[in-house]
UniProtKB/TrEMBL annotation:
One Pfam family in the UniProt entry: Amidase
EC number annotated for this UniProt entry: 3.5.1.4
Protein name: Amidase
Keywords: Hydrolase
Source domain of life: Bacteria
């Protein structure tokens, strides 16, 4: 499947045209692979926009989708919920949507998500759950919370899936669907016009089909130029964190990760194993509920009073953890995080990037975690496993990218390259090199 760069080159060379590519995207959007992917489609508007597109623009009139929590002018912003389905329409596009449009992208629809972005599984009891594209025999979870955005990219219906990442909501579905998801340092991309989960941890970012497309999407969303460099992989110093990140790996994930490390070493990568004992502090730091619970409760408390019965009970359970947090506990949390970040950054300073499995498991079946109290224990077990590795990077205020590292015939496995805040360009540089090595 061609990525954005290859398709744009074909357009410029006259091998296709934007209208043909848009009709292909719409046909895939309407296919069975995209069942439950969209909460709203805009195909007629997309066809009209393509007629006005310029092939020399960065996105060349090609399709992108937007997670349901971003404002689109003239539409409500339900964020995967039923209680906001008939909310007042947004007056203007969110800044992220506006920037993608200004770069020549054409929005084809709003994508399904975990209600209010509060889980890494991707199950939605209101709009249905889109199935992972990797297995047509057993419907598997898409990962969340940016579930529909991931399937839109993985199925070929879009070149960019705009989403958000609070604890892994871009990287988890990217890993489970075998695509690329880049979570930049949060401050680099604006959250204007995006319904929040946690104002401290939320990051506006995207999923794509390749690392080079991730660079393009990030440059557009952040309005900055990436300077990844072109030095060989052997130039970089990489770390593997042995504790927590490698715990309880499913055999297929462990095999793919070890195979990937061997491939990178054969390419010349210098990889050193390290420990981060500070990871043990996270349970104590977040003991009172953490940022997502406190900040989501602050946003939802009045809506819960009016319409709580319309929420997904699993989402309500997590939001209500924030109801009991006291002001001094929230302030203590801010200070504890700042201290924790400083200690982690000191350990990571000698390295250009850290190499980890994105998540420790492959995608389980939708049936095993579908809505229903009898499956809650399994749902929360899977959710905790999926969030474990990627959420550490959010707590670090860091940046990370997930790219596929499985081989043909295996369920998708993600490789996560990450570091502390503002190391985005180095992480992307290593990712470009790693992707090249893994595709040989």
């Amino acid at each position: 499947m061609n990525d954005l760069h290859a398709t744009r080159f074909t357009l410029l060379a006259g091998g296709s045209d934007a209208r043909t590519e848009m009709e292909r995207a719409i046909a895939l959007s309407e296919s069975s692979a995209c069942a439950h992917v969209f909460t709203r489609t805009m195909f007629d508007e997309a066809r009209a926009a393509v007629a006005e597109s310029a092939p020399e623009s960065r996105l060349a009139g090609l399709a992108f989708t937007s997670k349901d929590l971003f404002d689109v002018a003239g539409q409500p912003t339900p964020a995967g919920s039923a209680v906001l389905a008939h909310a007042p329409a947004a007056q203007v596009d969110s800044l992220a949507v506006a920037r993608l449009r200004a770069a020549g992208g054409v929005l084809t629809g709003r994508t399904n998500m975990t209600e209010f972005a509060f889980s890494g599984v991707g199950v939605n009891p209101h709009y249905g759950t889109p199935a992972n594209v990797s297995d047509t025999a057993t419907p598997r979870i898409p990962g969340g919370s940016s579930s529909g955005a991931a399937i839109s990219v993985a199925s070929g219906a879009a070149f960019i899936g705009l989403g958000s990442d609070t604890g892994g909501s871009i990287r988890i579905p990217a890993a489970l669907n075998g695509i690329v998801g880049f979570k930049n340092t949060a401050r680099l991309t604006p959250a204007d016009g995006a319904l929040p989960l946690s104002t401290t941890l939320d990051t506006v970012c995207a999923m794509t089909r390749s690392v080079r497309d991730a660079v393009t999407a990030h440059e557009i969303l952040s309005a900055r130029q990436v300077t990844p460099g072109s030095v060989p992989l052997s130039t970089y110093r990489l770390a593997v964190v042995k504790n927590v990140f490698l715990d309880d790996l499913e055999p297929v994930v462990a095999t793919a990760f070890e195979r990937t490390l061997a491939t990178l070493r054969a390419t010349g990568a210098r990889i050193q194993e390290i420990e981060l004992p500070e990871l043990a502090d996270l349970q104590v730091i977040n003991a009172t509920g953490g940022f997502s619970a406190a900040e989501s409760y602050a946003w939802h408390r009045l809506l819960l009073e009016r319409s709580g019965a319309g929420y997904d009970p699993r989402v309500v359970q997590r939001i209500l953890r924030g109801a009991g947090m006291k002001a001094h506990e929230y302030i203590d949390l801010i200070h504890a995080r700042r201290d924790w970040i400083a200690r982690i950054e000191k350990t990571l300073a000698p390295f250009d990037a850290v190499v980890s499995p994105t998540v420790p498991i492959t995608a389980p079946s939708i049936a095993s975690v579908a809505p229903g109290a009898e499956r809650d224990d399994e749902f929360f077990r899977v959710n905790a496993l999926l969030l474990r590795n990627p959420s550490i990077v959010n707590m670090l205020d860091g940046c990370a990218i997930s790219l596929p590292c499985h081989t043909a015939g295996e369920l998708p496995v993600g490789l996560m390259l990450w570091h502390a805040a503002m190391h985005d360009d180095a992480v992307l540089a290593v990712a470009l090199q790693a992707e090249r090595a893994l595709q040989k």
